[in-house]
Design a protein that fits this description.
mainly beta; SH3 type barrels; OB fold (Dihydrolipoamide Acetyltransferase, E2P); 8 domains; 7-stranded mixed beta sheet; 50 strands; 40% strand; elongated; signal; SLH domain-containing protein; SLH_dom
Length: 827
Amino acid sequence: MPQHSSRSKLMAGVLAFSLLAGGTAIAVPAPSAFAATTANSLFIDTIPAWAQKHVAKLALQGIINGYKTTKGSEFRPLNSVTQEEAVVMALRFAGLEDEVNPSDIVAYPDSFKVGNFFKPYIMVAFKNGLLDQNDEYANAAANTKVAWGSTPATREWVTKLMVKAIDKKDLADDLSKTASTFADGTQISAKYLGYVNAAVSLDLVKGVSATKFDPKAPVNRASLATLFSRAEKQYVVPYDGQVSGIVTAQTATSITLYKEGKETTYTLDSSSLFYSSDSDNAIAAGDIKLYSDVVLISSSSKALYVEAQGTEQHVKTITAKLDRVNTTDRYFYAWVNDEPVKFSYGSAVSVKDSTGKTLQISDLKRDANLTIVQDTFRTTPQVVSVTTEVQATSNTVAGQFYSAGSGLINYLVDGTLQSKFLADNVDVVINGIEEPTVSDLLKEIDNIKLTLNAEQEVTRIEVVNRNVSVIDSATVVNYSNDNKLLTVVDPATSNANALYLTDTTKFDSDGSSITLSQARSYLVANRKVKITYSGKNIISLSFIYKQTGTLVSVNTTDKLLSVKLESGEKVSISYASPLLQIPGVAVPTIGSLQAGDTVTLLLDSNQDKAATIQVHKTLQYQVVSANASTKLVTVKTADNAQRDLSLTNVPITDENGSSLTISALTTGTIINVPYIGSNIQSVKTISMKYGTVASVSATSLSVTEMNGTSSAVSLSKGVKVIKGTQTTYASSAIAAGDIVQVYKDENEQTIVTVAVGDKRTYWKYDAPNATLWTYKNTSEDNGNFAYITSDTKILFNNATIQVSALKDGDTITVYGFNNKALKIVKS
C-alpha cells in the first residue's frame, strides 16, 4: 500500500506536462481561463461524449493539460499514453506532485530508461509505493527494445498503478487468486489479476466490451482521464478551488453552498458545467435539487463545474398547527403531536398557501395547518419552506365582554351593547388558563378581541387584558362564606393572599369537577390548593392530591422528598411507607429513586404525605405476540424476560404519530412504552432499518435499505455503535458501505449495529423454508443457518448470483442480523 507523505492541494500549471506521445505541452491555465459549456470547448479538438465529463473535471482540477498549437489547445483524446506520462498523472491525482523536486539528480540502471523530465516523478512514485521498483526494473530489462518510460501504458499496467494510487492494494491482494469474469481473463498477467479484479469491483474500470477486457491494449488519453475521474469516488484529494457542500439556494445566475456552518454563493453563467455523479452525460442546471450534495469547482467565486452527488435532500417534512410568529427574531411556534415546537427560519424562507400563492410569514394565521420543510444539516435546523391551508377572509372587532348564550356573544363598545353569532367550535384564548371556554369569560371585566369569518361569525375570542397568576401548593388560612373571601399563604413568598370566589370559579378535586357547595367543606385551615386568579378573583381552584415534577433529592433521615414542580416551584413532601412504582424495577425501594427522575406523588387524604410515588419512565420491548380481541400483548424485555401488557384504551402510534391498531404489533416489532408508575400511557412502534450506509456525518446517517429506498436518520439524540464485541458512541465508528441495523432506543438515541461478516462453509439451501444452511464451525455453533428473503444480495466476484449457484463446500461470508441474511459473498 502506498505510504503517501503528503496530501497537499495540487497547484494547477506548476509544471509543463501533457499525456501525449509527442508534441509540445503547455501548463494548465488557471480554471478561470476556461469558459465552456462542454469539455469540447476546453480544447479545439473533439472529445468523445463518454469522456467529456471526466476530461473537463480533471482539466479544471489541474491534473491534465492539452497541446499548444497555433489554433489553440488540443487534447488529442485518442493518443496513447506512455508509462512515464501515466505516472505523472497518477501523482497529480494523488496529491503528491509537490513532493517532486525537478532539480533532483536521479540515476537509474542503464536498462531503465526514463526521460529526464520524468525521473524525479518516477522516484516519488517508487517512494510512495505507486510503483514496485523491482517489478518495473524487471519489466524494463525484459523489453530493451523500447525505453521503459516511452513504453505505451497497457490497460492492465495502468489499472495496477491506479489501484495503488487510491490505497486499495490490500483489496487487490485479496482478489489476486480470484478468476476474472472477463472471457479473455486468462490473458491478464498473474501479477495484475488482483488489481484488475479490484478495479472492477470498485466500478473504476470496465471492459472494452461486456465480456472482453483486452489487458495488453494501450490506454489512450481519454480513457485514462476517465479512469482517474471515476477513482475520485474512492480517493478524495482536496484540489485547488474544489469544495463539497449542500445546495441551499440556486437562481439562474448563482448557486449557494452550505459547508461546516458557512454558506458561500458562487456565480453561474452559460459556461458553467453541470453533471451528476452517476452518469457521464451533462445535466441541466435545474436538475440540481435544493438541499442535496454537490461537488463544485470554482475560480474567483465563479462556479465552473457542478456535480450532483445524488438526489437525496437533507430535509424533513413536518405537519403542524401554527401557534404564534415572532418576525423580529425570525421564529415561530407550532404544535406537533400536541407539543409546542420552536422553528427558526431565514430571510429566504418560502411561504405559500396550498394553491401556490406566495405569502409573507406574517400572513400565517394562528391554528392554521402547516406543512413545514426543515433542513437536517445545520446545527440549528432552519425552516426552508412553509405551505399553509388557504386562509379564509376574516376581520376583527373589539369590546368588553357582557354575556354569551343561545349562539350569541354580547359585548359593549363605548357603552353600546352589540352582538355577534358564534361559529361552531369557537377558539377561546385566555392567558394562564388551559383550554378555556366561553364560560370562563368575566362580565364587564374582560376586554376581548373577536375574529370573524367571511360570514361575520365569531371564530375566535381572545381576552387581551387579563393578567392571570398561579399559586401552586397554597395553604388555606380560612374561608369566609359570607363574602366568599379565601385567605391563603403562597409558599414561594410566605405572603398571605386574600382572594374572592366568583360564580364562574371552577373547582376540581382529584381530577373531578365539583360545585362551590361541595368545595366549602374542604376549604379548611392547612388544606393544600392550587389557585389561578386574575386581579382579586379566583378563576380556578384545585384541591391537591397529587404533585408532578422533577425529583431534586431524597432525605431518608427526615423522610422528605424535594421536588421541583412543573410550575418551577420547589416543594418538600414527606413520606412514611409509600407504595413505590418504578417501571422496570421489580422490587423498588426508596434507594431506587434517582435525582432527575420525573415523578408523580399521590398524596394521602390529609394532603401531607406521599402515599404513592410513581416514576415516569419509557421502556423498550420487542413484541412476541398480540391478541387483538383481548388487547393483550406479550413482549420480551431487554433481559429476555417475557411479560404481558394490557393495552385496553391505550393509544398506539407509529414514529410519525399516525394511529395504529393492535394488529400492527406483529412479532418482532420494537415498541417504546412510556409509564407513569405502573400505568401505561401509550405505545409507539419503532422502525428497524436494515441496509447499507451511504454516508455519515456527526449529525445524521443516510442508509440505503435493501429494497433500494434511501432514508436519513438523525443522530441529534446521540448514537451508540455496536460492532462485534465493541461498543462506541461516535458516528466516526460508522463507515460508508457498512451493512447496518438501525433503530431508536427508548431515549431516542440511535442504535447502529454494524454487521461483521461471518465466514462459513455452504452446505445446502432449503427452498420451501427459504433457509440457507452451513456447516458448523464448532460443535457449539448455533448460527449455521440464515433466512433468505427477496432483498438478500448474493455476490460472486462482485456480480449478483442466485442462491442455486452456491455449491456444497463453497466458502461464503454472511452479513446479517438475527439469522436474516442481508448479503452473502462467495469467495
